Amino acid sequence: MASCQEKKEEISFPKTDLAKAPLVPKPFKTISTGSAFGLDAGTAIFTSNSDAGFEKVGKFLSEQIKSKTGLQIGVNSATEGTLERLIYINQSDSVELKGPEAYQIYIKKDSILLNAKTAAGAFRGVQTLRQLIPEKSNDTLTDHPIWVIPSGKIIDAPRFEYRGSMLDVARHFFTVEEVKKYIDALAYYKFNTLHLHLTDDQGWRIEIKSWPKLTKIGGASEVGGGEGGFYTQEQFKDIVAYAAERHITIIPEIDMPGHTNAASLSYPFLHAPDAETPRVRTDMRVGYSSFDTKKDTVYSFLDDVIGEITAMTPGPYFHIGGDESHATKKSDYIRFVEKVQKIVRKHNKRMVGWNEIVQAELDSSSVIHFWNKPEYALKAIENGSKVIMSPAKKAYLDMKYDSISEYGLNWAGLIPVDIAYKWDPGTYVENLPEENILGIEAPLWSETISNSEELEYLAFPRLIGYAELGWSPSEHLDWDDYKERLAAQVPYLEAMQINYYPTKLVNWK
Ligand code: TNX
Fold first, then answer.
1. Is 222 an annotated catalytic residue?
2. What is the pTM of this model?
């Protein structure tokens, strides 16, 4: 009598090499075992139920598999016939997992096991799996399409806890959909932070219910004379939630006491009498505006603004800007930063500010955002503070690639794709110990760009290199090795309709 149980199919895979997969960022350690896991319609995903976040991560993977391959893979809901190959996403407290974003993946013939301490770690591991799924199925190994994933083991954890990019939505406004598209790409490359530069001289972009003219008046302009725009609180919360689903934290920035023309135009009492009189600004100049640091009403205004924004922001940080306050006297600037630091603390956030803030007396919980002066970054040592590394000469996404770049500025120099990659955030500021470095951020100022296509032209492919500088150990930072893996990102960029600058430094395939 024939057995009613179908025989499990043995596929013989061509030899694979997991260590040669073009992963970005490059994992801490990869061990190849030469065989493969065949992703197909008979695959099911199971997740830990010890933490609700894990099932969400499983569903995210299932959606991504569907959009890449068309396969519909159940999560914690296998039906008969879908138990041939399993992907487990498992909560683990193993001591081998170093930190909340660490993960390990074991890929065998019949199973993939992804272990992480937290859902954030599992999410980072899922990005690695997404990158390992080939664009095309193999239709010759068996009677149905399978996507061949090389077998082996990946042990991975980030070098820095903070890996971010900044989007300036003030000089030009970007819609919720445009911001979400950027967040999707950040997630794919394991970034965990998006800093939104929400206000500047040319525009105020976030609704403050207690001060409605900020958006009514201050939101109605941008560089070049366009109509501007702003996020309602509902829209801002939607961005925060969308990022959180991808384990990305939003850091809001209200830039002050300079870069405040749009705020002072909306409410003239904010304006310092010595600074330039507020008017609609559509030019690119900086350093002419200032809040009146001597008025109590300015600080009660800021208490309202910071209160409303922090109430919508679950992350630990609030960025106060503090850069280029050339129209504020130094003593007034110092007093201002110290008073605003108290307000930020009152709202239970850690203050972040551009490196000029070190002139004030800072709490050790406050974070210094290095962009131009190493001597300011070094103040972190005395102060016990952490530093975010955004050296303009290396990490500014708004610098032109070369003299023929379509968009961008050049005040910090040209930044070709290799120069953007060839530096080490851990040693860039001489004598600044790595324990003082929170991580890396690549800011994208928007004076010269106003939509996703232009934004992407400047961000890609340099952003992908910053992902690796933030995540991978310094021993792995090697341009010749990286540029091959970068070239292999094209199918992803094309599938996501992400525009990129096709630099001649890379052999695009
Ligand atoms: C400097 S970097 C600025 C911004 C400009 C940018 C343009 C920094 C903290 N301030 O106001 O948009 O240069 O590259």
1. no
2. 0.97
